[in-house]
């Protein structure tokens, strides 16, 4: 049923699946090609996190990225969104078990703040990443939309990139 | 998934291409109504209105239920469809993110392996 065209040549990449588990919860799974230790580090070290958390297609530039991945430690990501004020995403780590489990709050949502829990499970040199976003209510999840990506999804930059990518994939 | 979403959207757009049907949706947005009420409001025959409601029902934009001899219409479960679009968009965001993560992790894994070899020498 999935009619998505893979825009990248080369080996078949692992699939990202998304499932709405309940009114308040969405679960994302993906296998990453590397040991859990390295994947965990990519989540918890600022200089690595900033290399992948904001894909180019999101149309936002990361201005700063601070991460203190200890229980009670804070993180803060600021993005340039065109105006003078950056968009900020911030919260607190509530669970940090090296290489296996990580959880943080997303406090920018105020009342509708969500909690993100990630588990890392290594198998044969690859790591299954299961990411769960829990919202306090169905309404909070619905209004959260796709978060930061939503704000920028309509930008022409992105449309341009999409058209280029579609052009590339149709030539293959 | 994408194909499914597209088909559903096509049905919705087809249903919405008609002015009367858009009017019916607006009307039902304010309050549920029977087919007879709707036919009167839009100065149509009962049969004509039944057809329009049928199209909207097929697109999931309207549901009807019969109570006694009256068929009542209300706005349908189109939310389900919005949810599918929402979920696919959400998936794409994470897919892009994880693609980037995969690149970073593969690079670090390779680097570690080659550093390990160097150290053993």
Task: Put the structure in a nutshell.
The complex is a heterodimer of chains A (172) and B (121). Chain A is built from five helices and eight strands, in the order ββααββββββααα. By secondary structure, chain A is of the alpha+beta class.
Secondary-structure class of chain B: mainly alpha
Domain module count of chain B:
2
Structural class of chain A: alpha+beta
| Fraction of residues in helix of chain A | 25-40%
Unreliable residue stretches of chain A: 1-10, 146-163
* Tertiary shape of chain A: globular
- Separation, N- and C-terminal Cα atoms of chain A: 21 Å
N- and C-termini, Cα separation of chain B: 51 Å
| Structure summary, number of beta strands of chain B | 3
- Element order of chain A: H for helix, E for strand: EEHHEEEEEEHHH
Structural domains of chain A: how many:
1
User: Using DSSP, what is the number of strands of chain A?
Assistant: 8
CATH topology of the largest domain in chain B: Arc Repressor Mutant, subunit A
CATH superfamily of the largest domain in chain B: Winged helix-like DNA-binding domain superfamily/Winged helix DNA-binding domain
How are the secondary structure elements laid out?
The complex is a heterodimer of chains A (about 170) and B (about 120).
Chain A: E1 17-22, E2 25-32, H1 36-44, H2 46-52, E3 61-67, E4 74-80, E5 87-97, E6 101-106, E7 114-123, E8 126-134, H3 138-144, H4 148-152, H5 156-171
Antiparallel strand pairs in A: 1-2, 2-8, 3-4, 4-5, 5-6, 6-7, 7-8
Helix pairs in contact in A: 1-2
Chain B: H1 2-16, H2 19-30, E1 33-34, H3 35-41, H4 46-58, E2 62-67, E3 70-75, H5 79-120
Antiparallel strand pairs in B: 1-3, 2-3
Helix pairs in contact in B: 1-4, 1-5, 3-4
Model description:
The complex is a heterodimer of chains A (172) and B (121). Chain A has 172 residues and is α+β, with helices and mostly antiparallel strands. Chain A has a single domain, classed as START domain (Alpha-D-Glucose-1,6-Bisphosphate, Chain A, domain 4, 2-Layer Sandwich). Chain A has five helices and eight strands; from the N terminus they run E-E-H-H-E-E-E-E-E-E-H-H-H. Chain A has helices at 36-44, 46-52, 138-144, 148-152, 156-171; strands spanning 17-22, 25-32, 61-67, 74-80, 87-97, 101-106, 114-123, 126-134. Chain A has an eight-stranded antiparallel β-sheet. The longest helix of chain A is centred in the C-terminal third of the chain and has 16 residues, at 156-171. Mean pLDDT of chain A is 78; it is low at 1-10 and 146-163. Chain B is mainly alpha-helical and 121 residues long. Chain B folds into two domains: 2-75, Winged helix-like DNA-binding domain superfamily/Winged helix DNA-binding domain (Arc Repressor Mutant, subunit A), CATH 1.10.10; 78-121. Chain B contains five helices and three strands, in the order H-H-E-H-H-E-E-H. Chain B has a three-stranded antiparallel β-sheet. The relative contact order of chain B is 0.12. The mean pLDDT of chain B is 82. The interface between A and B is medium-sized, with 38 and 28 residues.
